[in-house]
Amino acid sequence: MSTDLMPNRFTPGEATIPLRETELIARRDNVLGSSYRLQYRRPVHFVRGEGMWLYDPDGRRYLDFYNNVPSLGHCNPEVNAAMAEQASRISANTRYLEPRLVDYAERLVGTFPQELNRVVFTCTGSESNDLALRIARLVSGCEGVIVTSHAYHGTSAATAMVSPNLGDAVKLSPAVRMVSLHGPAGVSEKQAAAFFEEQVRSAIADLNRRGIGVAALLFDSIFSSDGVWVDPPGFIAGGVKAVREVGGLVVADEVQPGFGRTGKNMWGFELHEVVPDLVTLGKPMGNGFPIGAVVGRKASMDRFGAAARYSNTFGGNTVGIAAADAVLTILYRDRIKEHAHVMGERLRAGLEHLAIRHPGVRGVRNAGLFFGIDIGLDGTGAAGRRAMALEIVNLLRDDGVLISTTGANEDTLKVRPPLVCQAEHVDRFLEAIENALKKAAAPV
Amino acid sequence: MSTDLMPNRFTPGEATIPLRETELIARRDNVLGSSYRLQYRRPVHFVRGEGMWLYDPDGRRYLDFYNNVPSLGHCNPEVNAAMAEQASRISANTRYLEPRLVDYAERLVGTFPQELNRVVFTCTGSESNDLALRIARLVSGCEGVIVTSHAYHGTSAATAMVSPNLGDAVKLSPAVRMVSLHGPAGVSEKQAAAFFEEQVRSAIADLNRRGIGVAALLFDSIFSSDGVWVDPPGFIAGGVKAVREVGGLVVADEVQPGFGRTGKNMWGFELHEVVPDLVTLGKPMGNGFPIGAVVGRKASMDRFGAAARYSNTFGGNTVGIAAADAVLTILYRDRIKEHAHVMGERLRAGLEHLAIRHPGVRGVRNAGLFFGIDIGLDGTGAAGRRAMALEIVNLLRDDGVLISTTGANEDTLKVRPPLVCQAEHVDRFLEAIENALKKAAAPV
C-alpha cells in the first residue's frame, strides 16, 4: 500500500502503456508537480465528454460510473449555456450589488431546514470545509475537531490536517480526534448508535482533558472515504448531542453526498434527521464550474461575520452563480433526486442478485446513487480483498467502465454515476461488473 | 477604523441609498453570511460589464480602475469563447490524461526563469498561498513564516493566520513574524535594503530562539496591501538571502502583481532580480474564471509530492485551463505588458503633474498599471489623511470611477485598471481625480 493510501493509482512500469500515452505521461511528469496522481494501472486519456460517457482520442467510449461532479452529465448543454450567457453579460464580485447572487442564495437556503438560512460562497469543497473550521473555531473559542477514522475533508492546510485518509505523510493536527463508525461486525442498530456516541464522548473527554476543547464534529454525511455508510438512519444522533452539550458545532460535509445524490433527500444529513450548524457544499454544485458554499445558522454566521471579513475573489461571482442556478433548476424540474432513487433501487437490486451468485461480493450499501460494494472472497485476508477490489476496478476500466475504491482497507468499490444515468447504463454496469467479478475470482 | 481594517466599506445609515438598492441590501443581509462587505458609502450595483466599463441598472456607466481580475477587460469575448468551446467538449480533471493541461503547463512555466519548472493548479489565490505554505513547511520541516506588516495572503485558515491585514479579530499564527518595509522617511535606497534585511534577520533569530524555525519568507512582490511599494529595485535581496541561509523557502505571491500588471515584467519578483522557490498565482490568470497555481522548483515540488498527494477536484480542469490559455495567448499577442507599461507611464506623468498643483497628493508609486497614490494635506494627522483618501474614493465613485484604498493607514489610493485601458481612460481618470481632489481639499 502506498504511503498516501491511494491504491488505484498509476505506477510507472506496472502495466504496458501505449506510446501516445507514455509520451504524454513523460511530458506531464516533466512539468506538473509530483503531487499529482493518475488513476488506473493504465491511465485513461479523454478528449470528449457527453452525458454518461467519456471518449478517448480513438473514439472509444467509457461509461462514467465514478465522477460525482458532472451530476447532470458531462458537458450539460443547459448549464453551459447559462454559464456562457452570464459570462457575456457580467462576472460581478460580491462587493458590488447584483440581484442574481441574492436570488440564488435565497433559492439555495430554501432547500435546507429553516434554521439553516445564511450562506457564504467559496470556489471548492476544500474552501468550504476550511471556512467551516474557521467559523466553528471562532464561535466555540476552541480548536478540537472530531472526524471519522478515514475521513477526507480537503486539500487546504487546515482541512488536510483533519483528513486521516491522506496517510501518514500528511501531519494530522494535534487538535483532531478520530472516531470509528462501527463496532465489531454483527452489532445491532441500537448498538451502532451507542458505539458511535461512546467514541465521540471519549474524544470530547480527551480534548477537554488537554485544554483543547471542542470546536466541531465534522462528518461527511455518507462517510464516503470510510467506505460509504448509511445505516442505521440516525446512528450519529447521540454523538451530535454530545458535541452540542460542550458547545461544539456540528458540521455536515455535503461536498460528496449533497445535491440529491442520496436519492430521496437533497442532503445526506436528512437521512439521519439531524440539523447541523454548518453545511459545506462543493463538487456537483455547478456541474463542473468551481463553486462551493457554507450554509449555516444565523447566530454562528453573525458571530463570525462580526469579527472577520471573508472576501473570496471568485466565490459568488455571477458566472458560477449562473451555473449553480441552472443546476438547481434542472434538479427540481427533472426530479433528479427522485430519479436517482429509482436508478439506485435498480442498481441495488442488480447487485444484490449478483451477490447471491458471486461470493466475491461481500456487501452492498447505498443511498440513491452513492454505492459502496465490499469485495473479497472468504478466507482471504485484508491484502487479498484489497487486491481483488483493485483488480476489479482495473478490469472494468479495460472494459470501458470507470469506478474506484474506498474504505479503511480500500476493498470497497466506490460507485457514483452522474445522476442522469438511465436503466440501460445501470444494466451495462451490472453486466460489466459481473464479468469483472468472474475474471477476478478465477484462479490465475 | 473598523476592527477589520476595511475603511472603504458600506455602513448602513451613513449615506442615503435609493430604494431599489435598499431593498436589495435588505434581502442580501437576510441570506448572506455577515462576513460579506459591500464597498463604498453608497454601494454600487452592476448588471453588465464590457471592457473598461461596468453598467448599473439605469445604464449609467462606471470606469473600472480597480478590478485586477478582468485584466483583459470585462466579459472579454475571446476568453469567453475559449471557455464555452472547451466546456462543450470536455471538462476533464487531472487524474485523467488530457493534452491541453500539459500544453498549458508547459507554456506557463516557460514564462518563468528556468529554475521554476513545475506547476500545480488550484482554483484561487488563497488556495495557491495555502498550498505554498504546506510545501514550504513540509520541505523545511519548520513552521515559521515571515510576512510584511500589513500583508494579505488569503482567506483560508492557514493564509488568514499569516495575514495581519485582516485585523485584530482574526488570530495570527504563533509562528508568523511581521517585518516592516521601510525605516524612517528619507532613508537612502541602500538604507532601505539594509533595514529590510535587518528586520528579516531579527525575525529569523526570534523564530529559531523559540524552536519554531523558518519555513518561508512570503511576500507580495508589489506589497499591495502595505501600500504598493516598488523601490528601490532589489531592496528585498538581503532578506531573501538570510531566509535561504537557514533553509527557509522564498515564496513570491504574484496573485496581484502577476501576469504583466507591473508593466515591463511578467512577474513582480523580476523587478527585484530574485528567483523565488515558489510563486503563487491567481486573480487575472483566467480573466475571471477561478484558476490559480503554484509554480516552483523541481526539488521542493518533488519533496512535497513524494509525501503528499494533492488532488484539487476543480484545479486544472480543462475549462479553466482553456480560459487561462486564451489569456496567455492574448497577453503575448497583444503585447499587453508593454502596453501596461506605456499606459502606466502616461498615468504616472499625469499624477505627478497633478501633485505639483494639489498638495493633497503626497506621493505616487507604481509599476506598470499598479499604483499607490498617497493622500493627505500637510499638517493633518493619520486620521485626517485616511478620511481624505476615503472621501476621494467615494467622490470618484459618485463621479463614475472605481478605485479603493490601501496601506498601513489606508491613506493610499489603490489604482489597478484592467490592462487593456487606453489613453482616453487614463485621461478620464486624471480629470476625475483632479475634481475629487479639489472637492476633498475644499473647506466644508
From TrEMBL, chains A, B:
GO terms for molecular function: transaminase activity. Keywords: Aminotransferase, Pyridoxal phosphate, Transferase. Its cofactor is pyridoxal 5'-phosphate. It comes from the Bacteria. It holds the Pfam family Aminotran_3. PANTHER family: ALANINE--GLYOXYLATE AMINOTRANSFERASE 2-LIKE, PTHR45688. Belongs to the class-III pyridoxal-phosphate-dependent aminotransferase family. This is Aspartate aminotransferase family protein. It comes from Rhizobium croatiense.
